[in-house]
Amino acid sequence: MSLLAKLKGAASLADLAAILGYKPSALSYIIYKIPDSGKYEKFTIPKSRGGEREICAPVERLKTLQRRLANVLYACRDEIDRESGLRPLSHAFRRTVIVTNNRRHKLSIVTNARCHKRRRYVFSLDLQDFFPTFNFGRVRGFFIHNNDFELNEKVATIIAQIACFENALPQGSPCSPVIADLIAHLLDVRLAQLAKKHQLTYSRYADDLTFSTSRRDFPTSIATPVTPESPQWVPRRELAKVIEKSGFVINPKKTRMQFRMSRQLVTGLTVNAKVNIRPEYYRRARAMCHTLFETGQYYRPSSVPDKEAEDEEDAKPEPVESLNPLEGILSHIHHVKDAIDKRTELDKRKDATAARKLYARFLKYRYFVRLDRPLIVCEGKTDSIYLKHAIRQLTDFHPKLGEREDNSFKSAIGFFNYTGQAHKLLELGGGASDLKYFFIKNRYAEDIRGFKHRPLAHPVVILIDNDDGAYGKKGIFNIIKTNFNINIDFKSNDSF
């Protein structure tokens, strides 16, 4: 029985608990016993265009529950998409994979932007207060009345209780995106019908709506300039009525028309000739990396737009030492560049683009140069799991391995994480052959010397399994002897 069928058949808290992998008492405790004040931590983060966004981050116990609910809903949505056979209209908060020209793509800002490339007109607008729009009653009512779900009222109520906080879907919850996108599907259907009526292409990414066309004139019932001479366009009544009827509000500050002769952007990507990163965005990232590799810190532009800065100090670049913001920028650039690169993965490695090389260099700096604690690189992906558990148990005997804080444990040793990015960009995917990177001349050592700022405050420890991969002419031990002139005779596996 599919998860969707199980969810439709659920009639009680116990039924829903079983689907989510909980005991009824445990699920009941999280929902009803933990006070609202103890379920979330509130903080703000700066918006890219100024101002702040409030984030309500669930505590770990609730976060785990919401993540399981999200996984169930994602699986249900995949089943609904397969049965409908229709191409998705929204490109955010989905796990759906589409096939274009025999290539598989995950829905993303790239697939969203691709819908609107090489068009005469690109009209975009935003929905105001997207997540707060979905209140408790709206979430509950959707799961009761939607034709794809039609859940038991009690089950729908419990789902809304898990997902909502202060009568809204909180930004920071793992299940808010998928629930918001499920509810917004009705808006997508109505706007797609409107777009088809006027020979437009429509797509949505979260709260960002885009219409495009190559018709000679953009339909005036959808949008028109404020005045004949004004560059500012506004949505007309036919479009606004559909959006308002679907329970949303247009953000008047984020409505714009983009013409073919000027640069056209969709979800931050250029679409005039092909989907791509803005050139100045990449140049800025490259400059930040250069400064980081030279000095150990970098500068990013102020979050306050120049026109809104009260004085010159507000508009100055901000010095940053944390590597997380820059890694997010480089990851974004690589994701887009990699998605539009139609070559095979092998060809991408052999002839890497400048953006790929830059991201790989940053990862080497982060993983091996800018360490805040000793790093252990294991041969296998699961080796680190066993070692982490061993360290937890041995802390009482070796206090320097880490420390306990309440119910958590903070290790004094880091372990290399064999992520997909590490495999693709650094060719470190686990296994003895990949570890040769550290011992072949002119590779690891030259990479490290390429950074002017190299604190190297902590060691990188390579753990090699005592098996066949370490021996032989092409084994790691032989490479170490050859390249470092270490005359150690490893005769057999019994030598350890």
Keywords:
496 residues; alpha+beta; 4-stranded antiparallel sheet; 3-stranded parallel sheet; 20 helices; globular
- Order of strands, main sheet, comes to 6-7-5-10
Classify the oligomer. single chain
Structural class: alpha+beta
Supply the number of helical segments: 20
Radius of gyration: 27 Å
- How many strands in all? 19
Describe the structure in your own words.
This protein has 20 helices and 19 strands. It is of the alpha+beta class and 496 residues long. The strands form eight sheets. It has a four-stranded antiparallel β-sheet, with helices on one face. A three-stranded parallel β-sheet has the order 18-15-19, with no helix packed on it. Helix 6 packs antiparallel against helix 7. The radius of gyration is 27 Å and the shape is globular. 24% of the residues are buried.
Short description:
With 496 residues, this protein is an alpha+beta fold. The protein contains 20 helices and 19 strands.
